[in-house]
């Protein structure tokens, strides 16, 4: 049964990311309209809330950048899948570092690099078995697929770091707020009503810092975790799609490549011509 292509909103990760950003921005807009956001920022004398929100904005831009890259990779794997469905012998070429399938160039990126690595592996195996009597090349992509998954995880790992950082900054703000709140108590020497009134005002300011910075850290870390969860889910789907496409459509073509059993001289001449050529056919 042919693998159903990803279409519409399922494929357009950028669209889903923009929808999520729109919802988040609308939420911040409502908070500002009600005066809650301005009040929280104005009450934070430590300015930690400003720093938390600025960091959240920076990491959100980084998240959008990764989303754009992954969206391009999704489009490239769909293009590669459709081209491999109708591929014929000799129609997969490597020319000057570019992958060409059925005369169509796969744009440089994650998919092109992965296919290039796989074809390079197939070529090395073919050279190793050029003098042996073999009916096919036994090629697998386990190591390459694991390496790709690790690279994607490493790229997205900054999201986990950023989420934890925002939460920790919120806790730092809590500690700072309590220090601001309790410092005047240690300096209290007179129980004059005016002094006590000033003391309560300072304690209230410290409590406001503690609460608002904690709230800022919790909200921004939760939102950022949601954003990177969306990216991680899309990355998992992409790796799955790539594995299925290569396993079902590309590897069988490479595995059925026939090699001469008793013509070592012909194999040597063929290897030499491949080294001198800038264009290599893998099928």
Please tell me about this protein's structure:
The structure is a single chain. The protein is mainly alpha-helical and 283 residues long. The protein has helices at residues 13-33, 36-43, 48-85, 110-128, 142-186, 193-255, 264-276; strands at residues 92-95, 98-101, 104-106, 279-281. It has a 4-stranded antiparallel beta sheet, with helices on one face.
Strand content: under 5%
Query: How many DSSP E strands?
Result: 4
Uncertain spans = 1-10, 257-283
Element order: H for helix, E for strand: HHHEEEHHHHE
Number of domains: 1
Keywords summarizing the entry:
283 residues; mainly alpha; four-stranded antiparallel sheet; 4 strands; 5% strand; elongated; disordered N terminus
Task: Provide a compact summary of the structure.
This protein is mostly helical and 283 residues long.
List the helices and strands and how they pair.
Blueprint: H1 13-33, H2 36-43, H3 48-85, E1 92-95, E2 98-101, E3 104-106, H4 110-128, H5 142-186, H6 193-255, H7 264-276, E4 279-281
Antiparallel strand pairs: 1-2, 1-4, 2-3
